[in-house]
Amino acid sequence: MSVRTPDPNPGWLSEFALDETRGRVPILYVEAVPVRLDPHGQVEHLGVLLRGSSTTGELTRTIVSGRVLHGESVRDALLRNLEKDLGPSAFPQLPPSLVPVTVAEYFPFPGVAPLVDPRQHAVALVYVVPVSGECVPRQDALELTWLTPSEALDPEVLDDFEGGRGLLVKQALAHLGALA
Amino acid sequence: MSVRTPDPNPGWLSEFALDETRGRVPILYVEAVPVRLDPHGQVEHLGVLLRGSSTTGELTRTIVSGRVLHGESVRDALLRNLEKDLGPSAFPQLPPSLVPVTVAEYFPFPGVAPLVDPRQHAVALVYVVPVSGECVPRQDALELTWLTPSEALDPEVLDDFEGGRGLLVKQALAHLGALA
Amino acid sequence: MSVRTPDPNPGWLSEFALDETRGRVPILYVEAVPVRLDPHGQVEHLGVLLRGSSTTGELTRTIVSGRVLHGESVRDALLRNLEKDLGPSAFPQLPPSLVPVTVAEYFPFPGVAPLVDPRQHAVALVYVVPVSGECVPRQDALELTWLTPSEALDPEVLDDFEGGRGLLVKQALAHLGALA
Amino acid sequence: MSVRTPDPNPGWLSEFALDETRGRVPILYVEAVPVRLDPHGQVEHLGVLLRGSSTTGELTRTIVSGRVLHGESVRDALLRNLEKDLGPSAFPQLPPSLVPVTVAEYFPFPGVAPLVDPRQHAVALVYVVPVSGECVPRQDALELTWLTPSEALDPEVLDDFEGGRGLLVKQALAHLGALA
């Protein structure tokens, strides 16, 4: 079901309006850890995005992430952001329930909470999403890599995640029974 | 842990700024179904708020509900709204995990989705919160009533809930194993 | 991963040993509500098994259900029972997490709890399992029917479920956000 | 609600009958991580049991754990085992929902799965249980210690847990958002 409706205030916002809004209310995000499952439903690999900073050249890791737009359902936002980050040939299987694996709270100032987003106060619904097909990121992200749970749990790898999102990877793997 | 930080853009917004913001992004809410538990942890009663409309005089039912303010953590928002609706002598026991019972999506136009909020596109994290102590609503709400699960599941009662929230009551009771 | 190990006491038990065991400990089951999802992950249909009683000729409804055998993992038991009830051409996608939608407790005496199993005290881990492919039951069950959520929620349909399992169908649909 | 019923085969089993049963079916357990919460519902301390081996004198750590008896409800089993391990002056608040934090599978042979129980194939429903009052173990366990999340996550501490249960502690803390 699509719940997008004719909208006099479209989801798209000017940079100015978005900046202003970010100072007024927490911004709602959806985030997804893409996974490859074996036939028993156990996670084999996690999809991790490698993003290069245009200014510092530094490489950081992240997961699929994006805003829920005005008038957009959570499921539509998930699908749109999965397609943005994994490309049109990826086939994500959205979870049958909207109950997230965890709720992630990002604050703009470091030290307040484990997750940080310098742009804004954001709250993300975090999902684990099984994906089949070919994944070819078509935006910012330079590369998608598939890591085994134990590769992803390497402390050096976890530290490379933007904004402290290594924590979300650990929470997702705990939820999947794949910490050990 | 409080994660409130010095904030140049306080959570409080002028009516104008809030209206403008409501046209730009989905607004994040927390909602809570207050419950009384027996010693085995099984729900005995649900707290339901009766609110009188100042214009029509009509009585409607609702659950604890309120915005997450800019810079405010989800837990702070839950506690603040529970105190607003249940009064200072209520002792809510916030759930140890922030994973909600359900994620509720409200759209401004009826017929698009089961939940409706004419003011805005809102997304609510819905929790079940055990409460002890005395509950005395101190705002809008006229009265707090405690219903057994079977009283709350009466179709006439469910229909009285604002915005279709009777659905959330059913989802909460299903989660608690108290549908039958 | 299969965790079946060489087992001096195989999962298979003689009728006598099983009866004796049923009088000693609660028996662990897995149960599954098969679902067809749309591309957004929302449930379109539930798979319901129609079983004819060999003695009374009465038709009853049920969901996929079976014991976890000695030495068998929960995932292996789920796959085995899904194949038993849906046939070898069904492709169930086991959930990535073993956290069940609900824990169902069956007691042998009616009136004690909403779920009843005259044979035994049983505890079932209940999952929602997306299924693709063709489903052709190959055992007891006469027929598999696919019902929409609103068809499944018809009180007459719910009453036809064996042992009170209509309650589990309601709980599963509540979890999926498909009660309305 | 207690669902204990007059039972010709009482929950108590002779050692012989229990050994025989352990070779026939997986044995159902409940396990609980006792926690102290702050007023915001965030975990401050975890209760960990220190048990001394009567044969080797070695100290091991564990969590609250025990069988579900024949005819006993999951909630009754949780309360009984919490009282056994925390004493009669502890006031556990059972969770309002029976959905566990994780399902733990123990196999008798090491190397098959992360959790091991040399006595049997066991499946445990694992809960986080807020506890107030005084906790004084009255059985096997020598001592109850309260650890902060970061103390509990020390790899040396996690390694001391019986049967690999350090994994369950990590999963519980991930669920509580207290891994960092």
UniProtKB/TrEMBL annotation, chains A, B, C, D:
InterPro entries: DUF4916, NUDIX_hydrolase-like_dom_sf. It holds the Pfam family DUF4916. This is Hydrolase, NUDIX family. It comes from Aeromicrobium marinum DSM 15272.
